[in-house]
Amino acid sequence: MSAKPVPVWVLSSKDETEASKRQAAFAREQCRSVLEAFTHCQSGRLLTTGWVCKEQKNDMMDCMLYYMQPRFRDQFVDQVIEEKKALKEAAKQVSTA
Asked: Does a structural domain hold residue 9?
């Protein structure tokens, strides 16, 4: 009795991590200007960063939280699934050749 193959659309923890990394990179790219503003504000500060850069920090957090929403995650999960499908198809063609 052989086990049923796992469907391609079932993501492993490695695949989930990859989708999360891609989403975070996308969010950083979309929020580049507010990230740079916060980085510039906190440059040279230690203790006063929390007070002086509060507005920039809030803008950065709002932007990152917006792009880290589940509705954006779907596109990265779809990318990982498509890559898995392509790899599976390539392996299938190699094994039949």
From this structure: no
Is residue 87 a part of any domain in this protein? yes
d(CA 86, CA 88): 5
Domain count, the chain: 1
User: Which two three-digit tokens encode residue 68?
Assistant: 């880290």
DSSP 48: T
Q: What is the pLDDT of residue 7?
A: 64
What pTM did the predictor assign? 0.77
**Domain coverage including residue 61:** 14-96
Q: Which two tokens stand for residue 40?
A: 């510039």
The answer as to whether 4 is a domain residue is no
Does any domain span residue 84? yes
Instruction: State the virtual CA torsion across 64, 59, 32, 80 in degrees, nearest 10.
Output: 10
Run means of pLDDT, 10 residues per run, the chain, 97 residues? 58 90 97 97 90 95 96 92 88 77
